[in-house]
Amino acid sequence: MPSRPQSILLTGATGFVAKHVALKCLAAGHRVGGSLRNLSREAELRAALAPHLPPDAMDRLTCVTLDLERDEGWRDAMQGVDTLIHTASPFPIVQPKAADDLIRPAVQGTLRALRAARAAGVPRIVLTSSTAAIVNPGGRPVQDETDWLDPDSPGTTAYSRSKLMAERAAWDYVRDEAKGLALTVINPALVLGPPLDGHYGTSVRIIERLMSGKDPMVPRIGWPVVDVRDVAEMHLRAAEDLSTSGKRYVAACGSLWMAEMARILKDAYPERRIATRTAPNMLMRLMGMTDPAVRSIVPHLGHLGRVSSDRARQEMGMSFIPPAEAVRAAAEAVAAAGK
């Protein structure tokens, strides 16, 4: 634990992961400045956090308006900050027609945040990247922090490129222009687990779609997964432990095929029409011609990414929530929202 409370600037504070990061940091005694694109969402953030914290912790939360694509406010927001935790980055369920619509704000926003931190003398950066910046379909059977996505590999999405290029830009900036910045990168897998409110992100919408019974079968596709509570804990530990600087850390608790997720959900909600049969790849390709959400996964049919979180276990002391529990916790939130 740090010798004193930190002042932390958390970007994208209303995000699924970021709300949990704010919760962890406030519960640990730190002061948190949450950046929002619009201050109208401050009430949403406070409503999500308040039930889980004592009132005095909420007094240590402030909010500020920042935009990944605009310079206004960044330098002022960094004043007096000990650690920047940069989580803000777009994550759509349907890939955009123009890849640059994702890549530009991800890369420019990351560099904008790091440059402002350096100008204000902020010594510590924790950046949220993704295993999408690591995993290469057809690469090593189990991949880790030494691996990097090949942006030219078949089926690479705009989202994966955005995470790769934003993280690369951060490491290059620290190496070439800001050697004094202590940068740690967290690379989460598909983030499941319990949202703090009904404003959950794209990853939990995969569980929502499975529970909806919309599809008669599920695609043969899978991902490494992680519980949002563990992702937030890793951000906190990185912020508090300088020995993690200069390193990437995979956040993952195992990998699941979508059919395995569906069976977990079917066991928990037997009354729901949850498809557990795996669809032929050809059928999914045909569906992708009319369904943009399906189209985005077609290039990855038949692939189950596997990553190692050994570094986080050994160096951060992490013990991860099991994948099935992360799936069930996400499902409970979906069911509670009436979905």
UniProtKB/TrEMBL annotation:
Domain NAD-dependent epimerase/dehydratase, by residue range, is 8-250
Q: Does the keyword Cytoplasm apply?
A: no
GO molecular function ontology, one term from the record: oxidoreductase activity, acting on the CH-OH group of donors, NAD or NADP as acceptor
Pfam families noted in UniProt: Epimerase
Keyword annotations of the record: Oxidoreductase
Superkingdom to which the source organism belongs = Bacteria
* Keyword Ligase in annotation: no
Q: Which InterPro entries does the entry link to?
A: Epimerase_deHydtase, NAD(P)-bd_dom_sf, NAD(P)_dehydrat-like
The family classification in the record reads:
Belongs to the NAD(P)-dependent epimerase/dehydratase family. Dihydroflavonol-4-reductase subfamily.
PANTHER family named among the record's database cross-references: NAD DEPENDENT EPIMERASE/DEHYDRATASE, STEROL-4-ALPHA-CARBOXYLATE 3-DEHYDROGENASE, DECARBOXYLATING
Indicate what this protein is called per its UniProt record: NAD-dependent epimerase/dehydratase family protein
Which organism's genome codes for this protein?
Answer: Aliigemmobacter aestuarii
